[in-house]
Design goal:
- The protein has 299 residues and is of the alpha+beta class.
- Strands 1-2-6-5-4-3 form a 6-stranded antiparallel beta sheet.
- Strand 4 and strand 5 form a beta hairpin.
Length: 299
């Protein structure tokens, strides 16, 4: 019944055609392509600030696409520069253009629409976003990278028909899940810390619950929880703090989310593996994190 309904929805939407072609290399592999004739899209028009992400809602035809481009040295900037130039050459007005922390970091990523993993992947420390419009059409481009690939998302919307609500078919996996499977380690988005503190800031339950669900889905899965710090203070103090962060997260997973102890280990890395420069608070906030490292499956 569900498959029949989906076939009907996407069959009716097969005629939805969008205008902009991304300048992708021949090695690009399309990972997602869904077009809907009557839907709503909340186009981000500025950075996340004051607790909110500014958006403009467009009701009409919406197409969502994603690609993975193998690249041993991925760099998000050149591709976004080419896309921006092509858009302007085709008469688009650039509404908003940002990179990582300037977009609003995790809060922007959480508020903006992102195609679920494994079709799309976003590294919170290195992503770029652009929104543009022309006549009655608007689009957004999101580019990020993993260890050996670029990941590109294009959402195009054309104002027209009234939106048709479609119930979600399945809950999306968090973006870190694909990274953990493919690369063996991943930052657990949604776990943030104050400098010198081992306790996650409020709002950690969603991230912890997602990690717990991933672990409980396969009892053979095991992870090392690794705490990280910014570079404030001595290495010895930060090693202690990072270990405490990892242990605090592991303890909550065991006690509050019923993850078996055999699936968890904890360790601290201090400030020895930064994901961003420690020169400003935005970079330091990215470095105060917890990662999961996938361990060999239990025998």
């Amino acid at each position: 019944m569900i498959r029949a309904a989906l076939a009907l929805v996407f069959g009716l939407c097969a005629s939805v055609a969008m205008a902009f072609e991304l300048p992708l290399s021949p090695s690009a592999v399309e990972t997602y392509d869904v077009a809907e004739a009557a839907r709503s899209y909340a186009l981000p028009t500025g950075p996340f600030a004051d607790g909110a992400l500014p958006t403009r809602t467009i009701d009409g035809a919406v197409q969502r696409r994603a690609w993975r481009i193998a690249d041993p040295n991925p760099n998000t900037l050149p591709l976004m520069q080419q896309i921006r130039a092509n858009l302007q050459a085709e008469g688009y007005d650039i509404l908003f253009d940002c990179a990582a922390s300037a977009c609003g970091g995790f809060d922007f990523r959480a508020g903006a629409e992102v195609i679920a993993a494994p079709a799309m992947f976003v590294d919170l420390g290195d992503f770029r976003f652009l929104a543009a419009q022309r006549d009655g059409a608007a689009l957004s481009v999101l580019i990020s990278k993993s260890v050996a690939a670029l990941h590109v998302q294009l959402i195009e919307a054309t104002a027209g028909a009234a939106p048709m609500p479609i119930a979600p078919i399945a809950e999306a996996l968090p973006s870190w899940a694909m990274t953990l499977e493919v690369e063996g380690h991943a930052v657990i988005d949604g776990l943030a810390f104050e400098t010198g503190s081992a306790a996650p800031l409020p709002g950690a339950d969603v991230a912890l619950g997602a990690l717990a669900d991933w672990l409980r889905a396969d009892p053979a899965r095991r992870v090392l929880i690794v705490g990280h710090t910014d570079a404030s203070g001595s290495l010895a103090a930060n090693m202690t703090i990072s270990q405490a962060r990892a242990e605090a997260v592991a303890q909550r997973l065991r006690s509050e989310f019923a993850v078996p102890a055999a699936q968890l280990q904890a360790a601290g890395a201090g400030y020895m593996a930064p994901r961003a420069p420690n020169d400003d608070e935005a970079g330091r906030a990215l470095n105060r994190r917890v990662e999961a490292v996938r361990l060999p499956a239990a025998g």
